[in-house]
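Worked example 2:
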Amino acid sequence: MMTNFDPTRLLGPFVAIMVVILIFGSRLTPGRMKETPEGLVFSLKPIYALSRLLFLPIYMAFFFWMAWRQNHAMPWAILLLCLIVYVLSMLQIPATIILTPMTVTQHFWLQRTKTIPYGEVTSLHAMQAGRAILVLGENRARIRHSANHSAAADFRREIERRTGKRVIT
């Protein structure tokens, strides 16, 4: 006897696979820095960027589909709330960090660019058991190289070399 295909049974395994890939996969791969004419570029690891740009809309669309299938009427407040959640998640995406010859710069998608000249770096702090580095500047700017950025060891070595300061653990 053949049963009908029910996509709701795929939600559990799909979410479990996404969680395993995002949590463990992104932590296991160090990523690579890129050398460009502007300087050394430390971008996001591809799986992290993919999770925000692709998996989050798919995840939200699945729940829209489930609500629509049960009711065929979607309250506008739920649509607005989901749009706000998506926009806020895009605002929180860690930015690309560039070590230029004179400054450390962080370029965001939807926020202003942060820049700290190497001479104005006040301290370097290790966070999350050394997986993240926080660069503090005299101009109160804070640039954070997180575990979701590529080449953490290379970033630490280069920022220490260029600023002449050691990372405080």
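The longest strand covers residues 121-127. Residues 51 and 150 are 15 Å apart (CA to CA).
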